[in-house]
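Design job #97: recover the sequence.
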């Protein structure tokens, strides 16, 4: 069991599964090297890349000697993560995909959050900002406040939302079996992270860092953009949970509908007609009653907001400006770079900075 204190700071192993990631991997590595918590082991797992991923990671390791590069035949992100976790020396593992980025204080603040638990034994997570190919923010996760036993809330909504956010005890991840590579073998790759989080949530408390510390990149062609496969993956993950917890069936079915609706709305916003062509028949076939109820609720909310606006105009009241902060966190502003969220905190470190030189 890991003890987190000022006298004993744990080693953290960062695991980066990387497949043909030469375009984004450098930015990811720099965001890890720039962490204010520097007791890190950084494992890049090259998943049979065909581009310059292995050479780039190896060259970067000459600058930051905490970096170690592993190789395996292409087996998917779950196998790559599991390979890194098996090789890890750290008491905690922090996965990050090879196109995502972290705020410099991400690891440090997660460790601080875990101090609320006996011996620091738990899982830490934070909110994320959605970024595009250029690192520009276009949205963010819903800022939930779930802590402690989060199993049932996580069933209803995957509020962690990606594989690049949690800080997890390595021993507990191994006890849960790691990431399920069988989903990829079933043609349902995508929800391996959610399945692991649910398994951990049955065993451990979760701590929240209420800030947007992960830059989660959405690009066409990445795994999370394949809506139909993600929905199949979600259904496979939930099936055994329904068997174990039949009283939660209604909540899980609602979560399935909300997940499908989210991908459908995203496909509309992206004008992704190929996805819409697959999703529309499925939505109509499986969720016709839910769609009717959801549509009625939306119309009611729109009518209510419209009525409030009219009432305020008639009464001569001005609209209150929305608070741009939640708790102590500034809300991510669309159209701004994710790096702008922390560039004013202090000098952003470069691959040749003194912090990195100390680790050579």
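Job complete. Output follows.
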């Amino acid at each position: 069991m890991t003890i987190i204190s000022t006298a004993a700071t744990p080693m953290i192993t960062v695991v980066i599964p990387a497949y043909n990631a030469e375009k984004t991997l450098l930015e990811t590595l720099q965001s890890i090297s720039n962490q204010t918590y520097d007791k890190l082991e950084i494992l890049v797992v090259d998943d049979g890349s065909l581009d310059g991923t292995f050479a780039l990671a190896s060259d970067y390791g000459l600058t930051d000697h905490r970096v170690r590069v592993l190789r395996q035949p292409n087996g998917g992100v779950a196998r790559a993560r599991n390979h890194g976790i098996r090789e890890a020396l750290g008491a905690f593992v922090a996965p990050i995909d090879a196109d995502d980025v972290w705020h410099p204080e991400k690891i440090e603040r997660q460790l601080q959050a875990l101090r609320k638990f006996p011996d620091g034994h738990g899982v830490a997570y934070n909110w994320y900002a959605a970024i595009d190919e250029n690192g520009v923010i276009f949205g963010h996760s819903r800022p939930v406040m779930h802590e402690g036993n989060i199993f049932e809330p996580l069933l209803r909504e995957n509020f962690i939302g990606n594989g690049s956010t949690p800080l997890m005890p390595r021993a507990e991840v191994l006890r849960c079996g790691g990431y399920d590579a069988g989903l990829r073998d079933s043609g349902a790759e995508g929800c391996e992270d959610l399945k692991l989080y649910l398994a951990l949530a049955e065993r451990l408390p979760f701590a929240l860092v209420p800030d947007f510390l992960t830059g989660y990149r959405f690009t066409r062609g990445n795994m999370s953009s394949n809506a139909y496969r993600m929905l199949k993956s979600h259904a496979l993950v939930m099936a055994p949970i329904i068997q174990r917890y039949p009283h939660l069936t209604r909540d899980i079915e609602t979560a399935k509908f909300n997940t499908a609706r989210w991908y459908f709305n995203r496909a509309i916003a992206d004008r992704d007609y190929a996805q819409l062509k697959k999703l529309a028949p499925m939505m109509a076939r499986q969720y016709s009653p839910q769609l009717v109820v959801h549509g009625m609720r939306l119309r009611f909310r729109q009518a209510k907001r419209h009525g409030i606006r009219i009432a305020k105009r008639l009464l001569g009241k001005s609209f209150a400006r929305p608070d741009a902060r939640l708790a102590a966190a500034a809300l991510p502003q669309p159209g701004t770079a994710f790096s702008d969220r922390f560039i004013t905190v202090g000098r952003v470190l470069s691959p040749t900075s003194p912090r990195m030189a100390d680790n050579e």
